[in-house]
C-alpha cells in the first residue's frame, strides 16, 4: 500500500537542560546519562539518554520524504549509513485525511512544517514567508521526537476553520492518530514534538485574540498548559531542553554546549543569541548582545562551539565566527556560476566536519524539469571534492534532518 514511500527522514531535535540546584525535574522512563557540571543551566542535547536503534546510533543520517497517492499520504523516515549510503531502517507515518499537510481553497490556511514537507509548488506552497532549505530543514526536524517514533500534526475540523494539535505514531494506520483537544473554535498551529515525545507544543489563539505558546501531554491529562507569549502563527517553533521549552523563530540550531542558538526573526538584529530561560519568541526586549553573521543568508548549522556554517550572498558556503560575526577561511563553492545551478545547505554532521547540500536548478527544488535528485557531501574545511550521494529512493522531495 505504501509503495514509493521509501524516503527519508526525519528529524529530531536533540536537547536538554541541566537544572540549577533546587529546581524540580519531571520523571523519565529512560535512564539519564550523567549531567555535565556547569555553573549555568545546561540546555544542550546531552540530557536525554536515547535507546540504541538505527535512528539514534552514532554515524547515522536521518531523512524524511512525504509521499502522496490517490488514497493515502504518508511520511517515510529513513536511517542511513552515510559512508555506503545503505538503508538501515525505515519507518512510515500515515497521515490522517484531516491533517493539514497542504493548504487548499475553502479551508483555513494552517501553518505547519508538515505543509513544508508535503506541499509542492504544484499543490501547496510553504505556509511560511521563506522556503529556502536552510529555513525549511530545522522546521521539519522539529516535527519529530528524538527517537523518531512520534510526529506532531495539526488537525482541521470539517468546518474548515477549527484546528487542533495532535500526533501520529510510526508504522500505524490512518486511524492511529491522537487529537489532543476537541474544543470548538480551537486555533492551534505550528505543532511540533518535545524532544522526549511526551508533549506536543504549538501556537494558539486565546478567546480574547491573544497569541500564546501552549503544550499538551500526549498521555494522561491533556489539558492546555500555557507556556508563554507568541507572535502569532507566522513563525515556527523549536522545542528543546529538559524540561522542554520553546523558542519561536526561524533557522534555529543549538550550539553544541546548548548555551547559544542561531535564529532569525523579522526586525530583530542578529543571528546568534543566548538560549532563553523560558518559552518565548525572540524579541528586542528578550535578547541581548546578539551577533550578526557577516554575509549570512542561510544558516546550515554549527561546526564547533564557536563557528557556524552559512550560505553566503554569492551562493557559496562560509565558516563564520559566532563570537565576532567575521567570516573565516576561503568560501566553499559547491557549484560554479556557469553551471546554472544553485546549492542549498541542509545538514551538518555532529562532528562539524561534513555537510550535505541539495543542488538544483533555480526555483526547481522539486524537480519539475528533471526527477534526478542531486545531493552532495562536502567537507566543511573546503578540502577535497564534493561526493555525490546516490540511491534510488532519494528524491527531490527528500529532506536531510539529522546526522548523529
UniProtKB/TrEMBL annotation:
This is WD40 repeat domain-containing protein. Keywords: Signal. Residues 1-25 form the signal peptide. Residues 212-226 have a biased composition (Basic and acidic residues). Residues 25-52, 212-235 are annotated as: Disordered. The lineage of its organism: Bacteria, Bacillati, Actinomycetota, Actinomycetes, Kitasatosporales.
Amino acid at each position: 500500500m505504501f509503495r514509493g514511500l521509501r524516503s527519508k527522514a526525519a528529524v529530531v531535535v536533540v536537547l536538554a537542560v541541566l537544572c540549577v540546584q533546587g529546581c524540580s525535574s519531571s520523571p523519565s522512563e529512560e535512564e539519564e546519562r550523567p549531567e555535565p557540571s556547569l555553573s549555568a543551566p545546561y540546555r544542550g542535547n546531552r540530557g536525554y539518554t536515547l535507546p540504541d536503534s538505527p535512528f539514534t546510533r552514532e554515524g547515522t543520517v536521518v531523512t524524511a520524504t512525504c509521499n502522496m497517492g490517490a488514497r493515502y499520504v504518508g511520511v517515510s523516515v529513513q536511517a542511513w549509513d552515510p559512508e555506503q549510503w545503505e538503508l538501515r531502517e525505515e519507518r512510515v507515518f500515515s497521515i490522517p485525511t484531516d491533517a493539514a499537510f497542504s493548504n487548499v481553497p475553502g479551508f483555513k490556511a494552517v501553518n505547519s512544517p508538515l505543509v513544508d514537507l508535503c506541499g509542492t509548488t504544484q499543490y501547496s506552497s510553504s505556509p511560511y514567508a521563506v522556503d529556502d532549505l536552510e529555513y525549511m530543514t530545522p522546521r521539519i526536524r522539529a516535527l519529530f521526537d528524538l527517537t523518531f517514533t512520534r510526529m506532531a500534526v495539526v488537525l482541521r475540523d470539517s468546518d474548515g476553520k477549527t484546528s487542533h494539535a495532535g500526533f501520529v505514531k510510526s508504522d500505524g494506520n490512518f486511524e492511529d492518530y491522537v487529537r489532543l483537544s476537541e474544543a470548538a473554535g480551537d486555533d492551534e498551529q505550528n505543532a511540533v514534538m518535545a524532544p522526549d515525545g511526551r508533549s506536543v507544543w504549538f501556537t494558539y489563539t486565546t478567546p480574547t485574540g491573544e497569541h500564546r505558546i501552549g503544550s499538551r501531554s500526549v498521555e494522561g491529562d491533556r489539558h492546555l498548559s500555557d507556556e508563554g507569549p507568541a507572535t502569532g502563527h507566522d513563525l515556527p517553533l523549536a522545542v528543546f531542553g529538559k524540561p522542554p521549552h520553546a523558542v519561536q523563530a526561524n533557522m534555529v540550531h543549538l550550539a553544541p554546549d546548548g548555551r547559544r542558538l542561531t535564529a532569525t526573526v523579522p526586525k530583530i538584529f542578529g543571528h546568534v543569541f543566548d538560549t532563553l530561560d523560558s518559552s518565548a519568541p525572540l524579541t528586542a526586549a528578550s535578547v541581548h548582545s546578539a551577533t550578526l553573521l557577516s554575509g549570512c543568508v542561510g544558516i546550515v548549522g554549527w561546526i564547533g562551539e564557536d563557528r557556524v556554517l552559512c550560505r553566503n550572498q554569492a551562493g557559496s558556503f562560509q565558516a563564520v565566527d559566532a563570537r565576532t560575526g567575521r567570516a573565516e577561511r576561503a568560501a566553499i563553492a559547491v557549484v560554479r556560476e556557469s553551471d546554472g545551478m544553485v546549492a542549498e545547505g541542509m545538514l551538518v554532521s555532529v562532528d562539524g566536519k561534513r555537510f550535505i547540500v541539495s543542488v538544483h536548478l533555480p526555483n526547481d527544488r522539486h524537480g519539475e524539469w528533471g526527477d534526478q535528485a542531486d545531493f552532495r557531501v562536502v567537507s566543511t574545511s573546503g578540502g577535497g571534492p564534493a561526493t555525490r550521494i546516490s540511491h534510488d529512493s532519494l528524491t527531490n522531495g527528500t529532506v536531510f534532518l539529522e546526522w548523529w
